[in-house]
Amino acid sequence: MALIVQKFGGTSVGSVERIEMVAEKVKKFRENGDDIVVVVSAMSGETNRLIALAKQISDQPVPRELDVMVSTGEQVTIALLAMALIKRGVPAVSYTGNQVRILTDSAHTKARILQIDDQKLRADLKAGRVVVVAGFQGVDEHGNITTLGRGGSDTTGVALAAALKADECQIYTDVDGVYTTDPRVVPKARRLEKITFEEMLEMASLGSKVLQIRSVEFAGKYNVPLRVLHSFQEGPGTLITIDEEESMEQPIISGIAFNRDEAKLTIRGVPDNPGVAFKILGPISAANIEVDMIVQNISHDNTTDFTFTVHRNDYLNAMQVLQNTAREIGAREVIGDTDIAKVSIVGVGMRSHAGVASRMFEALAKESINIQMISTSEIKVSVVIEEKYLELAVRALHTAFELDAPARQVE
Ligand code: ADP
Ligand code: ASP
Ligand code: MG
């Protein structure tokens, strides 16, 4: 008999019919004798709807109150799923994050889980009940409701699996596993049998939203066996593993991630003195704006250009800060661009292969796609390009690195 934590995402609980289907599925697992803890998201679109409501009141809603509100989405689905289970003769009980006591820090809208009280859950499981827990939410030490950031139900699932030492954490969603790239963008994308935590972490942080980054971090740290599966189709899904098997078939690149969430800022004609990078980025970080890629050009006539990217939500803020800096340090001008996208190739195979980056650049050159910025780490190469070429770039790279599925194997 196994203890399994199953997380069902928004589309999987997007209607009453689907919730009934999830209940049927959970019932089958129960009949096999497994203990089940289910984590659910809000019905698809609900979290967005709630956020939009708040924005009708204020552009920047008070984070504490926003959390009180958006956490209701999950409260609806846990109750509906518990009802659907009970209707089927499966004893079940639902809990909000607060009721379980999923203790988090107080960083509203992006809280981190600190501790989970597993007593109630264990007692329910022992009494033969399926426990249904609201994803995406917790409570801080003062009793305030918190939420874990978009996609946070994945993290609730993995954290519960870690706390309960579950045999597996299964993330059920609307695709049948982790693919070489987003199958909605590249129909020739292939499902991966396995992917390492390290690669999955890179993919998630570079834009593949199939798993929330923190859920992968958690799973790696606590060694939680993690699998991504389709909610309503049978299949092995994708296992996220620790081991980096040295197999002959190990491809150089495991996947391609991309994101359209960044914007680029350039400050030109900066007097090139020691400390200039700090003078430019210090005020940005003081304004609580995270910087991703950074490029500083070689200087001409003792002035240089300095470019970096930030989240698009921070663009206007960053622009203001940078304009102030430009005045202070006597830089020539500040320019910005929001129509950019970042494309990254990821793979542990890069460690043992040379020439991966140049192969990437060659593939982009063949499509006449101009590269604006480059950054590399041990297992990834990222480039910033014009947003309108994003899909073309991803497809070209998918082919160049031999990731395409054999013809006719779409879906
Ligand atoms: P859920 O609501 O179940 O949490 P998400 O929408 O958060 O589902 O995540 C699933 C989606 O992630 C898929 O529909 C797919 O479009 C997208 N996705 C992005 N990159 C990948 C990838 N490499 N493999 C699989 N899905 C991906
Ligand atoms: N409902 C939340 C969101 O839409 C959390 C989740 O689905 O994981 O981001
Ligand atoms: Mg998700």
TrEMBL record:
Pfam families: AA_kinase, ACT, ACT_9. It catalyses: L-aspartate + ATP = 4-phospho-L-aspartate + ADP. Pathway: Amino-acid biosynthesis; L-threonine biosynthesis; L-threonine from L-aspartate: step 1/5; Amino-acid biosynthesis; L-methionine biosynthesis via de novo pathway; L-homoserine from L-aspartate: step 1/3; Amino-acid biosynthesis; L-lysine biosynthesis via DAP pathway; (S)-tetrahydrodipicolinate from L-aspartate: step 1/4. Transmembrane segments: none annotated. Signal peptide: none annotated. The keyword Lipoprotein does not apply. SUPFAM superfamilies: ACT-like, Carbamate kinase-like. One of its GO terms (molecular function) is aspartate kinase activity. Keywords: Amino-acid biosynthesis, ATP-binding, Kinase, Lysine biosynthesis, Nucleotide-binding, Transferase. Its EC number is 2.7.2.4. The keyword ATP-binding applies. Residues 265-348 form the ACT domain. Belongs to the aspartokinase family. This is Aspartokinase. It comes from Azotobacter bryophylli.
